Amino acid sequence: MMSLQRLSAKGRLRRLPPAASEIADLLRVVERDLAHHHTTIAALPLILGVEHTTTADYLDACRSRRNTVDYDAIGIATEADVAELLREAEVLREAVLAWLESAHPGLV
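Above: the chain's sequence. Below: its structure in token form.
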């Protein structure tokens, strides 16, 4: 499993001082299009805790599937798939907000 330190050493992450306005902007992006990318997904259990590994694995499988749809095929994702992904995204959103409230209450 990748660690936050390894992601940082590879230049994939960098530590910046948090700002409430930036957190709000990022949450609006999530609300807008729920576009989760590989590094963000990989970092979920590292930041939120190992109990989110299953969610990260699920989202990564969806990301991979989306890439297949984008480049190779159509009709792979069903309406049920989309509904499930939206449910998972909402659960994750709530977990992120709970973590922010606990770890960085001034940012929410």
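The mean pLDDT is 84.
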